[in-house]
Amino acid sequence: MTNLPGEVGDKLSASGLDPAEVARVIGSALDEDLGSGPDVTTLATIPAESVGTAHLVARAEGVACGLLVAQAVFCVVAAPAGVSVRHRTCDGDRVSAGTTLMTVQGPLQAILTAERTALNLVTHMSGVATLTRMWVDAVAGTKVRVRDTRKTSPGLRMLEKYAVRCGGGVNHRMSLADAALIKDNHVAAAGSVTAAYEAVRKMAPDLPVEVECDTLDQVAQAAAAGAGLILLDNFLVAAMREAVRLVAGRALLEASGGLRLANAAQVAGTGVDFIAVGALTHSAPALDIGLDLVAAGQE
To answer: Fewer beta carbons under 10 A from the terminal one: N or C of the chain?
Structure first.
């Protein structure tokens, strides 16, 4: 079990991240690099007693995210000596190319050994936050909230959903037990939207239920059955407007499928409550961030 320093764990908890889960991700990531042996290149070129400073620097404009996670990586690799970390920006901050995000001071062997793992996590999380912010900006001024899905990278769901929040989005369910989502295959198996809804309600009367609908007829069935949230799957904009009229406030509506940044504002203008975008987590490009060592005497 990877152990995080208490102070780092407290900061992760305060930010809404589970320190134990972060430790699990870091342990697994480090094992990929160090599970079969040490970082020979770094050990051969950096004297064990060398200490120094490095900056995490954004190479492109975006939204910073995962800085506490990166700090945790450096702390784990540098244990027991540890490192000193100074945050220059915070998760959720918009940054430009050349912005120093964080400064790390400590044993250079540990800093360089941890470099790739820390960057892999922070560039990915910042990429998710950046893409989310683009969608949030696209629907600014409307009531619509941008929401993620469960289309996340295996093992990284907590970090990716945190990154969505840092980008201004909101989260869908974290796991299958958090809420029921009746999809087309469930409807096919049950025989109808109404039958599927009633079956879920009978098994879990207190669980939030969302119903995925492919047609306006299904929307009417879901609203009549009492669904609190209805997902409009691959609806055209005109059909979304009709669904809003049909439901008339009896349920919240979520647009999903076939959405693009270019038409996000148009979709938001239909009156739906949420836009669900799987691409936030499954297709976000990494934000380019690098680690720059500071020359001796220039710290």
So the answer is: N
